[in-house]
Write a structure and sequence with these properties.
Elements: H1 3-51
Length: 61
């Protein structure tokens, strides 16, 4: 293998790794954002959930 071919193969691998790193970073940011949104919704809904803990007629309140 020539030096140019070896350099080209290394550049391709580095480019692929950078692409995967970007995808992993994007996925982690989106997951963190969804987790925060879930906590935000829970914070808004918690007073409504706590106001009426009875779910069926047979349960005592």
């Amino acid at each position: 293998m020539t030096a140019a071919a070896a350099s080209s193969a290394t550049d391709t691998r580095t480019s692929d790794q950078n692409g995967y790193a970007g995808r992993a970073l994007l996925a982690s940011v989106l997951g963190y954002a969804m987790d925060g949104f879930d906590l935000l919704i829970l914070g808004f809904m918690l007073p409504a959930i706590a106001a009426d803990p009875c779910f069926a007629d047979g349960e005592s309140c």
